[in-house]
Each structure stands twice: as C-alpha cells, then as structure tokens.
C-alpha cells in the first residue's frame, strides 16, 4: 500500500481527506444525481464503494430497510471474489475472520444398511494452483460492512440513504443529460414523503423482486423445481464427524442435506431438502417452521443426530432458475431508449439455487464489471456506448451460471446412485464444476475491451478474456516477494504488464523502443495523463517483469518511464519493476508460459480480466486499443 505521496499524514492511511460538499450528509438526496443505486445488498454496495472514491460523481444509494443487515442470506465467497476483495484491500481481513473450505465430503446410504448414511468420498475443495486465494465462508452482512467502511473512509464519505425505496422509474428521452426519473418513497414515516429525483444513470440492485426491473419492462424468465428447502444457521452439538467440513449428504428416502461450517468455529449452516411442492404451490403456503428443518435434518443424518442450542437465522425457499434477457433498458423489447441509462444487477436479473454458493459472488461480479465503466464515462474519458458491454458480458456469465446450477441442483437432490458406479454423481459433478464454483470460468468474448487471441501463444497462461492469474514475483527496489496481481486496486485504471525478453538484442531494440513510445509518443495514455495534469500512471499503470533474479539487476539502470514522478512533490514511484522468482514452481515465466526469448505485453482491464496479449513491438496496436476505450481522451 502506498501513501504520503502528497505530504505526510498521520493516522489510518485508508482514510481519505474529505473532498465533497455533500459528504457525510446522511439521507441527503439531491434532486439531480449522476448515479442512483437501488439497494444495499452485495451488488449495490460493491458499486457504491467504487463510485464513492470520486467526488466529481454524485452518487446516492437508497435502501428501504432502516439499518445495515446483521444476519442471514448468502455466505459463500468464491476464490474469484476473494481476488476481487484484494483490490478493495479487505481480502486479508476476510481470510482471518472466515472459515476456509479446504475439503468437501460426500455421504450416501450405507451399502449394507441403507437407512444409515456413511461417508463415500472426500475431495480437496479448491484444486492446487487455481488461485492464491482460498474458498471461504462468511456471513453476507460482514461483506456489507467491509464495503460500508470503504465508503465511510472515501473522499465522499458516502452513506446509504436508508428508509427510502424506489416505487417507479420513467425515462425522459427529451432530456439527454438526466434522462432517468426516479420516483421514491420514504419507508419509515406514517405519512411517507414521495418525491422524484433525476439521474444520469440508475442501477437496480434491488433484489429478486426488483422494482427497477419491472419499471423497464424486463422479466425474469425460467423454471422452478417445485421443491421446498429449509436453511438455518445454528449453534449445536452433534456426533456427525464432518460437521466442520463442507458435507453433501444424500439419504435413501429422506432427501439431502448440505452442511456448511461457518466462521467462528461453532456456527453451522444447514440446507435441508423438505417437501415436494405442487406446480402451483408456493413454499410459504406450507406453513413449515424451523422445527420441520431440524426434524428432517435428524432423519437424513441417521444414525447421527444434532442437538440444536440456538437458531440464529432460518428461512424457507424453493429452487428457481430465472434470468432476464437483457441487463439494461436497451435490450428489453419495446425498451425505453437506445442508450443504456438503467441497469439491473445481481438477483434483480438472475436467480438460482443457493447451493452452488454463487448468488452473492455473481452479483458482486456484475457491479465490479459495471463500476469502472460508469466511472470512465462519467469522468469523460469514455463514450457512453462503452456501457453496452455490461449487459453483453454479464448476461452470458449469468446464463452460464444458471445452466451449471440446473445440473448441480439436480445432482444434489438426486437419490444416490453409488451402486451403479465407483463415485456418486454428485461427487463427479462437484469435481467437474470445481473451476466454475471457484468463479474462474468467466471468459469475456472479443469486443472493444477484449481482443482476439492472435498473440496468445506469447503468454498462454494469461488467457484473453479470463481473469489475470496472479503469481509470485520479487519487487526490484526493495526485494519484497509478492503476488504480481495484487498491484491492481479497484478503480478505472488499466494495467500493462510487460514481460521483458531474455534476448539482449530484443531488449535493446523492441523493449527500448516500446518504453520510449510509452513515455514520449503523443498517443501514449501515460503521456496523455501527464499532459492533462494527472499522475502518469493514473489511466494506464505500467509494470515490468524481468526474468532475472533481483540481485542481477540495478534499479538505477531502469528506463525513466518505469520511475514515474507523481504527486505535488514529483516523488518517484519505486514499485513498477519486478523480477521472476527462482524455481520452476514459482517462476512466473514458467507458471504462466510466457515466451522467455521474445517476452510479451499483457494488457489487463480494471476488473482484472485480460484484454489482450501483444508482442513487444506492438505499441501502435496497444495505443489503438486504448483509444477505443478512451475516445474522448484528446490532448
Ligand atoms: C431471504 C433470502 C435468503 C437467502 N438465502 C441464501 C442462502 O442461504 N445462500 C445463498 O447463497 N444465497 C441466499 N440468498 C441469495 C443471496 O443473498 C443473493 O444472491 C445476494 O444477496 C444477491 O445480492 P443482491 O445485491 O443482488 O440482492 P439482495 O442481497 O437481495 O439486496 C437487494 C437490496 O435491495 C433492497 N430493495 C428492495 N426493493 C427495493 C426498492 N424498491 N428500492 C430500493 N431498494 C430496494 C433490499 O432491501 C435489499 O437490501 C438469499 C436471499 C434472500 C432474499
């Protein structure tokens, strides 16, 4: 973490100086805003945390409830979400507070006495080498707290406007600047005030019953499995031996259970299969209670049992898989306008069963994709058309989740078929879907943001369209061993990783020439940043990785573009140059199959997805790609 750039400041370096007139004014809702966010769930707060860093952008987030969430709902954090949390700076705190899922166990009816269950398999939960991050479990409320803290410490001190809900949305096509008319209502008054706010953009993160979705005419479409499930968080004693493992249990006749150990060492979550519902029936009509969940759990677990001491939270649900055909107002038939002004994210546009543990992860992934695009447009660097890529990219991601979740839900609910093969179907599906549940199968298709794979073979381990897969390196200036991917912070800045070639001639020709171009050419975003008064690395962060050991190189020999001068004193940033670690298991060139002789350039988007891989002499192509992203960055 870097700080003191613009002068020494005592105290918590994560607290930014206040830089906004409206900062800290709780429940102050201006009549005109740049972005309004509906809903303080994980999707809404992830977006609010990003926007809160920009005093130039007026952001409001409204929430009908009167206070932050305390318990319940989702708890699974995929390794991909942990990588994203690293950019926000709270992954280490989550690692410390959460329970890590290292092993998953599988239980089916005993072959000799089928009324009893027995363990038939155990699997390492996250395959080695998939990510530097673990798969963890922690209550959704704690994730909300982390985002709220970032907002509190941001230059805008953004606070949610609790006790307000959106009741309807209109688009005024005649108003090009503030086309979205948002009708709001207070939720905590006897005579609630209703009022209207105009916004440039509205993002509906208002959950499965989204008002924003309905207002833009989008519909959640899909199917339901007509199966009731109960979920409870409990403190208990039990003789079931795998209570601190993630366990999938299929009984002969009573149904299935998914056990998830929870943070703190004692708390446990149970997902318990209850009754089959008729085609027209809702789970709420059954009058099921927490006692039904406990009774059923004891039947499925036989010969083991649970002695519940405290029920912290419980709920009933039925499995449904639903998605909208567009995640903004443009794709809806009879849509309200051709430009995207209204977006929906998270459960508002896709719902699935909780058992694959994806709801919160994919919802945050949606707004992590949208946040930097909105910021680039609102700061004036990018064109509004960039915003079309949100729905294009995330709708496909959500559809893939729904397809996977269909299969996974069926496998969990299916009666055990162990007698027919060596491994129950559920264990096989778990192994097949490992990369998916880790959140690592997202691959964005070619667009202005993600290029084709012409030069992919220069760095095969950084697949274009997939997230940048970090690996260990040593920082040259101070010999610090660290994950290269951890240099990326959340925001709208792109990163260019240059892998220096081993070939000395290529180093003095291609590499030298590209570094010169990045420093001197008018088309270079690094030069453009300096000209418009930003720090040179504010739009494009250049990092270089040498194949040598850090003791074989001198920092003073580095090209001046790798030693940018920043802030009010023009201080040199010493953290741009890295060296590969020794050893085949930790050398980034080996691990990520980077061509050692020729080197490579790997361009990474602000949301950590690889945009392109280019040869070292392709500075012109690089500038062209970035000019498409920032067409308005004319100097
Ligand atoms: C009761 C319940 C139980 C769940 N249990 C599990 C579980 O066991 N495991 C699991 O993995 N997932 C579970 N989920 C799903 C998981 O919580 C979601 O996938 C995840 O929270 C989605 O995040 P989100 O931000 O899109 O929506 P949400 O977390 O649903 O947040 C939506 C927010 O919008 C607010 N809102 C609603 N209407 C308006 C309006 N008109 N204007 C402004 N704001 C509005 C809501 O109050 C809420 O705070 C559960 C969800 C619910 C609702």
Describe this structure in words.
There is one protein chain. With 635 residues, the chain is an alpha+beta fold. The chain has 3 domains: 32-70 and 140-220 and 322-415 and 424-437, FAD/NAD(P)-binding domain (3-Layer(bba) Sandwich); 99-136 and 223-319, D-Amino Acid Oxidase, Chain A, domain 2 (2-Layer Sandwich); 456-629, Phenol hydroxylase, C-terminal dimerisation domain (Glutaredoxin, 3-Layer(aba) Sandwich). Helix content is 24%, strand content 25%. The protein has 14 helices and 27 strands. The strands form 5 sheets. Strands 6-5-13-14-15-12-16-18 form an 8-stranded mixed β-sheet, with helices on both faces. Strands 1, 2, 8, 9, 10, 11 and 17 form a 7-stranded mixed β-sheet that branches. A 7-stranded mixed β-sheet has the order 20-19-25-22-21-26-27, with no helix packed on it. A hairpin with a 7-residue loop joins β10 (180-186) and β11 (194-204). It is globular. Bound molecules: flavin-adenine dinucleotide.
Quick summary:
This protein is of the alpha+beta class and 635 residues long. The protein contains 14 helices and 27 strands.
